[in-house]
Amino acid sequence: MKIVECVPNFSEGRDQKLLDKIAAAISAVKGVTLLDVDPGADTNRTVFTFVGDPVSVVESAFQGIKKASELIDMSKHKGAHPRMGATDVCPFVPVAGITMEECVELAKKLGIRVGDELGIPIYLYENAATKPEWRNLAEVRKGEYEALPKKMKDPYWKPDFGPQKFNKTSGATAVSAREFLIAYNINLNTRDKKKAHDLALDIREKGRFKRDKNRKILKDKDGNKIKTPGIFTHCKAVGWYIDEYKRAQISINLTNYKITPPHLVLEKVRELAIEKGIQVTGSELVGLIPKQAILDAGKFYLNKLGESIGIPESMIIDTAIQSMGLDDLGSFATNEKIIEYAIRKKDNLVNLNLTDFADELSSDSPAPGGGSVAALCSALSGALSAMVANLTFGKKGYEDFWKESNQLAEEGQKIKLESLIAIDKDTEAFYSMMAAARLPKKTNEEKKIRVESIENATKEAILIPLETLKIARDAVELAKKIARIGNKNALSDAGVAAIIANAAAKGAYLNIKINMPGIKDENFKFNVMTKAEETLNWINTLALQIEKDVKGRV
User: Quick check: is 263 catalytic?
Assistant: First the structure.
């Protein structure tokens, strides 16, 4: 699943009714979740944060910018924060399943549409910049709104998209793609702001001024003050005292958690603090965090403990929360703090208990059906193989297989998660087919649109069980590997993993085949059926071999 975050900044922070209208325009787009609206009266600026799939997020961003252009008059705007437009900046942030390069393309797509349809000059900055000097937002925004009339006459300031013409009410907008910013505070057992700031100077990228033994700042031959870089790149940090908590904190912005993750910063601060007689009591996440960042932290600490990382996602996250002391100042609500959890649907099939799922399955509703059950079987297969692997890792007599079993346990968890997603995707695809079939068909144009929609929806309903079939292949391969090295007391479980992976494959195949008559694209039919039959036969052969082998060994 591709998830993108968008963080537009609108030049209004005082009129709540106006902000509510912008929020309504953003939220009206299906597939987008508005996570946060943070207004500032002094800055007269509001930061909106929303997430969703790429197509929906771009549409939502456009609707927000459009509404802001209708409601905000920049000729009357005053505020403490630098700004040049009604929508001042609009960056896209890759969260999951999407690259920075793809987000740059989203920025360009939005920029073209805003420029063409709304007549607003668009400048690309940071990762999307078309000029090296425009990577720096401050350079793009130089002179702010008041400088735009002059800029619109200078060829150098020709916008990337939209007219080179002064838009008096909307100004200009800077659009980009950037990495996710994690706002993260480390709590100390002191009230001394200076001690906290001293630690901040050690870790932040720009470091501190270099001093001699008399604490005098050193200068180079040109008279410029010399700085010693800090330990971490992509790290901004200051020390402060928070009266609410009665303690000092190191306030940190991590601008690329893939290079500088919070758990590594925390470990280094713990080390430096002890040297200075200070204790780290825990840490605090401000705002949200991508799931991958907290999973990386959990796996880091599990590896330090010498424990398996092939455990359920929730347990890995619990390890991260406990190890980082993220609940030091209050409970850590995973459903609110982790982006992927905050936006997931609450009525998904995977959220039902076993009884409710079976009840729903047994009703007269056509979905969920065999496709969802096939995906459930592959999920159970991956889970069983992960269980056998975890019963092998760390156990006496299996020392030679600890490393491999740890890896296999992680593979099992991956298969489980992919399959659980497919349970709901299969049902959603069925309902999309039904929705396409209900489209109007009175005119020739309506008939054409309906036929194309049915074809596309049916293809999607085929491709999802085809993906389940591929996952089942991974599941049966995993069952074979763990049956070979796994704890002998759980050998039967490895056999069951192979059997239900085979069941998943057969179920997925039938769901592919039953939808084929509705497809007119003969190349699609041939390619998919060829691949499906080859994969099914391979899985069936291997699963039967594993079953026979396990029967002979138990």
Answer: no
